[in-house]
UniProtKB/TrEMBL annotation:
The keyword NADP applies. It catalyses: (S)-2,3,4,5-tetrahydrodipicolinate + NADP(+) + H2O = (2S,4S)-4-hydroxy-2,3,4,5-tetrahydrodipicolinate + NADPH + H(+); (S)-2,3,4,5-tetrahydrodipicolinate + NAD(+) + H2O = (2S,4S)-4-hydroxy-2,3,4,5-tetrahydrodipicolinate + NADH + H(+). This is 4-hydroxy-tetrahydrodipicolinate reductase. It holds the Pfam family DapB_N. Coiled coil: none annotated. It is found in: Cytoplasm. Homotetramer. HAMAP family: DapB.
Amino acid sequence: MTKKIIIAGPRGKMGAEAVQMVDKEPSYDLIACIDRKNGGKSIKDIQDTNGLPALDVPIFENPETCFQEMDADVFVDLTVPGAGFEHTKLALLYGIRPVVGTSGFSDDQLAALQDLSMTHGTGCIIAPNFAVGAVLMMQFAKTAAKYLPDVEIIEKHHDQKLDAPSGTAVKTAAMMQENRENKQQGHPDEKETLDGARGAETDGIHIHSVRLPGLVAHQEVLFGSPGQGLTIKHDSYNRASFMEGVKLCIRKVEDLDRLVYGLENILD
Ligand SMILES: NC(=O)C1=CN([C@@H]2O[C@H](COP(=O)(O)OP(=O)(O)OC[C@H]3O[C@@H](n4cnc5c(N)ncnc54)[C@H](OP(=O)(O)O)[C@@H]3O)[C@@H](O)[C@H]2O)C=CC1
Ligand SMILES: O=C(O)C1=N[C@H](C(=O)O)C[C@H](O)C1
């Protein structure tokens, strides 16, 4: 059966990639987009932005009007945390299943969406990373953390990224923490002579964020123990790397009646 899809953020790097992917998939129908700057136009009016095709798909500025007027099955959000949170709440209220790639939600925002999804019995997937290789990296890191509790994360992204650390790094740390003994790393008396030298820290795990032009999305998880090291590394070289994961979420969200956080929970 054809899946009717709404995408928010179509002019963005990920949004434009998702519009192209949905357009090419015979069983998907892109019925609308949400874009705060182009309400009343259609995708063909803004074609060529990040390679958008000339599609006769209406654009809504107001997400609520879009969800009210368009009878969609799935809503895909690829925007920024503030707008993404509001969009996702509204989609759940209107019974449209959200697939959210937007990163940077707070724990409170995640908990609020979890509650809303549960209350309405409407499935929702929030995936910090849609690339299957990245999800495997996180799972391998989780396994390794049981045996090698000394670990640091280096994540590297393009220099247009708004949030740091990346959603992937935060999720990797949380997954490792499920398996890792609590541990103070480094010298107990260590001092930063330059603020931030040791990166950010969550549950004793340090995360270092690199932002450079030319990069897409890359992460290394470095484990150390006396006399040995282990590095688990993943690279996304382009945004097509995320699209199989988006498709998987669009397929799986239909069967859910609650929020799932992370692609690893729905991999076949
Ligand atoms: N889960 C995953 O696998 C991946 C997730 N991401 C995440 O997806 C999100 C988008 O990434 P990317 O495409 O690279 O980012 P871009 O900056 O290229 O695109 C973001 C889009 O969101 C729009 N936007 C910004 N602010 C608002 C707002 N307040 N309301 C509505 N729309 C807004 C922007 O439009 P405007 O011009 O109006 O600002 C733009 O079209 C990020 O959170 C990123 O971390 C990225 C890659 C993979
Ligand atoms: O902004 C990006 O580009 C990416 N964001 C996600 C994140 O914050 O982890 C996923 C991927 O790393 C690309």
